[in-house]
Amino acid sequence: MTENVSRRIVLTGASQGLGRAMLEGFISHGHRVAACSRSAHAIEELHETFGEPHHFRVVDVADDNQVRDWAQTVLDDFGIPDLVINNAAIINPNNPLWQITSSDFDRLFAVNVSGTASVIRHFLPAMLSHFQSHHEQAGIDPVIVNFSSGWGRSVAAEVAPYCASKWAIEGLTKALAEELPGHFCAVPLNPGIINTSMLRSCFADGADGFPVPSQWAQVAVPFILSFNRRHSGQSLSVPGM
What we know:
Blueprint: E1 8-11, H1 17-28, E2 32-37, H2 40-49, E3 55-58, H3 64-77, E4 83-86, H4 102-138, E5 143-147, H5 160-179, E6 185-190, H6 197-203, H7 213-225, E7 236-237
Parallel strand pairs: 1-2, 1-4, 2-3, 4-5, 5-6, 6-7
Helix pairs in contact: 1-7, 3-4, 4-5
């Protein structure tokens, strides 16, 4: 892939933290982004800040019907993406597993795992159809990046549901890589330890010693844009994070 190829990027969880930092980074690199968030206020602000040719929509990825409708609108109005990033995720309140309510547990898996699967379910068929016949002309390898975590490869007390969801993302993505054509790429990506609201919910003031999302994105955005078929199925981590 050449650096001057403009990408069509689908991004979930774009309203804050790593998602917002990636959104700004991709746009600054000249790429088009179709992004979603559960926050109507955030989506309105993204429309006002960035506008066309980008595409923004209020979507709860835990709702398969909302994801289906969003995907159809994006495919019709924005075009077929060549890079899909499943970033949307939530974390459970710090507690031992037996004190996590069933509703908190189920909601976390609905967002972190089922939401990722829904995005793939509703975008990938169009990508497969298009890039089977056009990938050589496009000059790029279609890529799906599913955000994992250091806790998708290790564990910690009081975040068992989150750990389980990210271990699931690792397995789901590696299995997906086995199913895709050879010129596609599916990668589980550990972003590293970043000072976000999610990290602060676990570490409190201990999060202050880690990079903020804008610093992280300076490394992460070009790293993600470098992915191609040779990376498919690998558990990758953003360098230096």
